[in-house]
């Protein structure tokens, strides 16, 4: 093995036999042979990569792509059908919550059992016991059977043991998704500290933000193969864009009908997750997103022109309205909101039928999925028609910016004599 590498994975293939209805007893296997039918499922199809010593790697991909299988191969819980995996150093793993814990043993007893699995003798465990207990914050429950622990308490104890065995390589599978916010923050800080000391870290997670905080490199696994690897943020942008494009391509409406608060059928232009309120004095009858070529689209780039068209009809005579638009990121961040009253400082006379257009000449939103809200209000904010989550749209990268939105800027480089 090359001295600079902690892990070398070379052309690894892993298959599993998936039985349709496997007989458990010899009698069942003899009498019901059809139950023994199975298919060979190819989970990994020739994976190769290296992990340098002290490097933190994130593994991402959709469910079933082979991330957790790869982590189990690295921890030697299972072995590949073909290919080789070389590991240099002591491995500590957090692959399944409470793996290695005995439910009838106390937390203290499980610390000794679990740490011994990682290769520590009793003297080494005694030297680390106080640090493990202090980090877990389970002093009051340490002598209780772990079967009485919550999932968060399991995670605290498992994580506390794993990070205190002085491992050269730490493998983590989704475990940081469990636990309260303060303990998650404490875990992140500890992982950064461990990484700074030169420990190699491999994390499987669907939380891309976690990976970006900790990892130097991301490996995107798709259908058993490495789709892309590189700087986490840039790989994540391509991953999210691909997932969104696939979602849109395969989008099937599972709802034949969804009633809004006024029990009307869901309009064709509304997303299945929409919420609608209002007295319908003025009614929104269609909403369209257009690109610079005035073509309908739900995929844009940072810097693109976006046109929002709100079509309406009037159900009450002699009425004025205030048309509004709101944009939310799909993680709940409210990005922007405005209205015709804010922009024009006046109400709009409502025609029998009409369309109001909002033109965004230069979209400054950075890559993410966004949710569009539209509304028509009276001057005193009585809702004629308000639709939250009327549709979703995706913003793809144009330049390699960071943050929430792009701020136009100019750089000057001068030479000083």
Automatic annotation (TrEMBL):
Keywords: ATP-binding, Nucleotide-binding, Transport. Belongs to the ABC transporter superfamily. GO terms for molecular function: ABC-type transporter activity; ATP binding; ATP hydrolysis activity. The keyword Cell division does not apply. The keyword Transport applies. Residues 26-248 form the ABC transporter domain. This is ATP-binding cassette domain-containing protein.
């Amino acid at each position: 093995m090359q001295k600079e590498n902690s892990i070398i994975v070379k052309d690894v293939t892993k298959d599993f036999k998936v039985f349709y209805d496997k007989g458990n007893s010899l009698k069942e296997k003899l009498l019901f042979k059809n139950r023994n039918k199975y298919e060979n499922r190819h989970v990994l199809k020739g994976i190769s990569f290296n992990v340098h010593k002290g490097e933190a790697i994130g593994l991402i991909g959709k469910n079933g792509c082979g991330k957790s299988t790869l982590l189990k191969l690295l921890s030697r819980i299972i072995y590949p059908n073909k290919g080789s995996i070389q590991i240099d150093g002591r491995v500590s793993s957090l692959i399944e919550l409470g793996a290695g814990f005995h439910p009838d043993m106390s937390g203290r007893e499980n610390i000794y059992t679990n740490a011994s699995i990682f290769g520590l003798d009793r003297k080494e465990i005694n030297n680390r016991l106080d640090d493990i207990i202090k980090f877990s914050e389970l002093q009051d429950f340490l002598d209780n059977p772990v079967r009485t622990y919550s999932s968060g308490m399991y995670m605290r104890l498992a994580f506390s043991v794993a990070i205190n065995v002085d491992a050269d390589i730490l493998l983590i599978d989704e475990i940081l998704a469990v636990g309260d916010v303060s303990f998650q923050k404490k875990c992140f800080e500890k992982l950064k500290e461990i990484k700074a000391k030169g420990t190699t870290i491999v994390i499987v997670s669907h939380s891309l933000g976690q990976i970006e905080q900790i990892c130097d490199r991301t490996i995107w696994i798709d259908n058993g193969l490495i789709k892309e690897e590189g700087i986490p943020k840039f790989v994540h942008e391509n991953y999210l864009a691909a997932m969104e494009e696939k979602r849109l391509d395969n989008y099937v409406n599972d709802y034949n009908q969804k009633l809004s608060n006024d029990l009307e059928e869901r309009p064709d232009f509304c997303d299945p997750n929409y919420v609608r309120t209002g007295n319908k004095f003025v009614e929104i009858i269609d909403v369209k997103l257009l690109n610079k070529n005035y073509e309908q689209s739900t995929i844009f780039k940072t810097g693109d022109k976006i046109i929002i068209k709100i079509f309406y009809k009037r159900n009450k005579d002699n009425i004025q309205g205030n048309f509004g638009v709101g944009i939310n990121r799909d993680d709940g961040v409210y990005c922007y909101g405005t209205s015709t009253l804010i922009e024009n400082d006046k109400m709009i006379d409502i025609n029998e039928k009409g369309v109001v257009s909002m033109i965004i000449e230069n979209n400054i939103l950075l890559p993410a999925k966004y949710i569009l809200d539209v509304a028509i209000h009276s001057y005193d904010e009585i809702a004629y028609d308000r639709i939250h989550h009327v549709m979703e749209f995706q913003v793809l990268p144009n330049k390699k910016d960071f943050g929430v939105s792009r701020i136009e800027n100019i750089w000057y480089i001068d030479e000083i004599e």
